Amino acid sequence: MSRNTSGARIREVGLICASTSPAPAPATTAPPPVTAAPTTPPPASAGEAGGETGTPRCHTADLKVSIGQGEGAAGTLYTALVFKNATKHACTLFGYPGVSWVAGNDGHQVNVPFTRNSVDTKSTVTLKPGAVAHATLATHDVGFFDAAKCKPVDVRGFRVYPSNETRAVFVALPTQVCSVNGIDAGSVTTITEGASS
């Protein structure tokens, strides 16, 4: 083989290697690629705590809310507000529901929302399908208040926001309540297991 032929083949191989080598990546300001999510989820915040790893929070659409057992003492009526898991999967509830009286066909709010009874300790409640939990509502007979200061009105029931949710449901309980803000506003406990205390 001649020297000229060898040199030609070397140049030919060099051209082939050059054509198949990847071009250098252009400079870019795009952010780095997103890495895969970790297998273990990060700890939930206090408002979204789950009873078991991976158990989702109960959303409004997951729950059937109703009035449970009630009892009275010295003019105060204690009523269970019951939350039933209506789905086919477990979910969790934590903290207080938002509760207020509503009246009229338009469902307008009467008085201020129920205050939170801070005596109870908040804890995560895990509801299996069909299981229930409750919060206790404390209200009073309007007859114990000066009518001129209380200004009692008829209400249709409650507007209820399950804990950590922004979508409410209506729960019927026709009665009379004080319409003046702050007078007999009612109180609500944190959500606990079972249909009643």
Task: Give the SSE layout.
Layout: H1 3-20, E1 63-73, E2 76-85, E3 91-94, E4 98-103, E5 108-110, E6 115-116, E7 124-127, E8 132-140, H2 147-150, E9 152-161, E10 169-178, E11 187-188, E12 192-193
Parallel strand pairs: 6-11
Antiparallel strand pairs: 1-2, 2-8, 3-7, 4-5, 4-9, 8-11, 8-12, 9-10
Description:
The chain is mostly beta strands. Helices cover 11% and strands 37% of the residues. The protein is built from two helices and twelve strands, in the order H-E-E-E-E-E-E-E-E-H-E-E-E-E. The chain has helices at 3-20, 147-150, and strands at residues 63-73, 76-85, 91-94, 98-103, 108-110, 115-116, 124-127, 132-140, 152-161, 169-178, 187-188, 192-193. Strands 1, 2, 6, 8, 11 and 12 form a six-stranded mixed beta sheet that branches. Strands 5-4-9-10 form a four-stranded antiparallel beta sheet. It has a two-stranded antiparallel sheet with strand order 3-7. A hairpin with a 4-residue loop joins strand 4 (98-103) and strand 5 (108-110). The chain is globular, with a radius of gyration of 32 Å. Residues 1-52 have low confidence and may be disordered.
Shape: globular
Average pLDDT value? 80
Strand portion: 35-45%
> What class, by secondary structure content?
mainly beta
SSE order in H/E notation? Answer: HEEEEEEEEHEEEE
Total strand segments: 12
Q: Flag low-confidence runs.
A: 1-52
The largest sheet, given as strand count, sense and whether it forms a barrel, is: 6 strands, mixed
Radius of gyration (Å): 32 Å
Alpha plus pi helix count: 2
What is the assembly state of the chains in this entry? single chain
Helix content: 10-25%
| Ends apart, CA distance between termini | 101 Å
